[in-house]
Amino acid sequence: MVFFAYTLWVILKQKRLSEIQRDFINNMTHEFKTPISTIAVSADLVCNPKIAAQPEKIRQYAQIIKTQNIRLKDQIEKVLQMAVMDKGRMRLNQEVVALPAIVRDAVAHFRLKNSEAQITCDLPEEEVGVWADKVHLTNIIYNLMDNATKYVATQPEIVVRLRQSAKKLIISVQDNGIGIDKAHQGRIFERFYRVPTGNRHDVKGFGLGLNYVWIIVRAHGWKISLNSALGKGSTFSIEMPRLAQVQTSPRAVAETSPA
């Protein structure tokens, strides 16, 4: 009986892994084909002699090519990040960084590629410090904002808030999305897992973003939590130890490139 139960468990586990792999490959194929097809069509139009005499049209198609190229680059970077983590080659370059400045930097990068999202920042004036890898910290804030725009029925509204006490800092990203049912909240940080959306198939991504956030938070020794309900949006909060006040300005923070 024990051997039979173990065999059944192995079979079910292999079946689940096979389904995850198949879904990931199908999703990845779709995510790559869309920007490649769009770039190809736009390039053909730019090369059309009839378009050559219309500078405004050329600029329009060139912008489409640029946007889709950035999207393709981002998706490839996410897959490469997870490959590095699988091989155990990820290293944190931790230092004292000004958290409000990092948040402003991540928001600025996000606005460049998501102009339709309405983002509000609720940050303290002083540059409170945290011991972190500023590239990965920028990335996880960016990923949480990116996730906030995927499951929303109206214009995305995001609130990035920083609360503080004498010993800790809590950075939160709140959205006005459709919310997450409690039945799925325990699995949202799993790799490749995506909350079912019924007949909707317009949600982009590989199911890697929140898993990346979870891995980086754990690597820093921080805590992440979720507060969500169907129809009421979601709020992701990351709790981290607070350091002494950092004497720096937002302009002094080195530029980072969110994945």
Describe what this molecule looks like in 3D.
The protein is an alpha+beta fold and 259 residues long. The chain folds into two domains: 2-86, Orthogonal Bundle (Helix Hairpins), CATH 1.10.287.130; 95-252, Histidine kinase-like ATPase, C-terminal domain (Heat Shock Protein 90, 2-Layer Sandwich), CATH 3.30.565. Helices cover 49% and strands 17% of the residues. The protein has seven helices and seven strands. The strands form two sheets. The chain has a five-stranded mixed β-sheet, with helices on one face. The protein has a two-stranded antiparallel ribbon with strand order 1-3. Strand 6 (223-228) and strand 7 form a beta hairpin. Helix 1 (2-47) packs antiparallel against helix 3, helix 4 crosses helix 5 (134-148) and helix 5 (134-148) runs antiparallel to helix 7.
CATH architecture of the largest domain: 2-Layer Sandwich
CATH superfamily of the largest domain: Histidine kinase-like ATPase, C-terminal domain
Remind me, CATH topology of the largest domain? Heat Shock Protein 90
Morphology:
globular
Number of strands: 7
Strand content: 15-25%
Order of strands in the sheet with most strands: 2-4-5-7-6
CATH class call of the largest domain: Alpha Beta
Q: Order of helices and strands, N to C? A: HHHEHEEHEEHHEE
> Number of helical segments?
7
**What percent of the residues sit in helical stretches (DSSP H or I)?**
40-55%
Radius of gyration, in angstroms, nearest whole number: 21 Å
Helix and strand content put the structural class at: alpha+beta
Low-confidence sequence ranges? 248-259
- For the record, the count of structural domains works out to 2
Largest sheet: 5 strands, mixed
Mean pLDDT: 78
Termini distance?
48 Å
